[in-house]
Amino acid sequence: MIAFLALLLSTGCAQEIERVPEIFRPTNAHETYRLSLVEANLGNSALGHDWIEASETALRKPAHITSPFLESGYFDKSVATAIGYVFPVTGGQRVDAKVILQSHEPLRVFMDLFRLVDNDPQAPIHIASGTMLIEPSADMDPIPDSAPESSRRLRFEPVRDGTYILRIQPELLRSAHYTVGLTIDASLSFPVAGHTGRSIWSAFGAERDGGRRSHRGIDIFADRGTPVLAAADGVVSRATTTSVGGNVVWINLDRRRNIRLYYAHLDSHNVESGQRVKVGDQLGTVGNTGNARTTPPHLHFGVYTRGAVDPLPFLKRMRTEPQSLTADLSRVGSWSRTTDSNVVVRTGPNSGARLLTTLDQHTPVLVWGASSHWYRVELPNGAHGYIIGATTEPTTPLRKESVTSISNVLDHPTPQGATIQQLVPGSEFPVLGNWGEFLYVQTPAGLNGWLSFE
Is domain 399-452 in CATH 1.20.120.1200, yes or no? Predict the structure, then answer.
């Protein structure tokens, strides 16, 4: 499990004499690998530059996803790539991200989590990191039934609302199939046995005593004697009786979480100070002791960090089962094309994601991943986005054409593209798609590329 890193910044110098730039020292595996590229004089090479640029682009232009999320895709060794996923989290929720890799060759993939400050992608704060390794054994069957697999899980619980980016990037010159899953759910178990959020009838912040104070928790109504349960592992710091809360229990969670839970108005409590409890352990029973004597039995439940916070996000259960992958996975890693005009490209695999652009009919797209009924695609100009899989089809020949003069088939649909084959007058070729002033064609030698028709 990867936890948040607490950074303590301090100054102990009474008089500043001179600022001396420190030698760059990597703080995580991704930075270590990046530094190794620079030290090997690969940082300014095309290969190294593309890898570094891909890592930065994944943070500047991440895919916008919502929980629950599931995507399967492909990393191609011929392309330096990185994937970024951006998602909002409410304080009190738990994020569970899992990445599964399959590859027939040794492989390292870097998994890094960032938090955005004021939703600004230009200055993300690095929160946590991990590395996934695949190391096929030397005596493994050269053609095994399935590729070796590695997985890594990242769980974290932010104490305040925030926007986060999960970046996944393989090392250079390695291919792999990947599956990324992400769910966001309540971080605490419900504290009243047999009940759910539907039993909450008094919200956090509601006025009390004619507006002189506000409600610092939530009230969960249940029959007298209903078991009250530990919502998380922790230590009972107090189990006592007060004039306001009646029979109360305070539980301190572990230092990493730095949270205290408050249970009030219990009919009885059966724990004592210093006792360690596990999630689901009974602490007492529902009642109406203290200043709740005139109300029906209920549990007043509070969550405290540096002060009281709304317990609802800590308890509200979310949907955690992602939609099934219905897009054709056999298309992943290959070119497809749009079937209609005005095909919408979005920043994420959902209809609420921001619109990036629309595509003309028969626009070629390179499919890199699939999520539900969406494809994560690369457009001919290098931009990335998501389109509905049903709006695409394989790039089978549309028609045949020929050239009347010497023509160059290029590797990219720009005049600056490199020539992959030169066609002589009279050469026939199948047309597979079109983009702007270029046709996507297959040469007589079986190579796919771009031919200007202007």
Answer: no
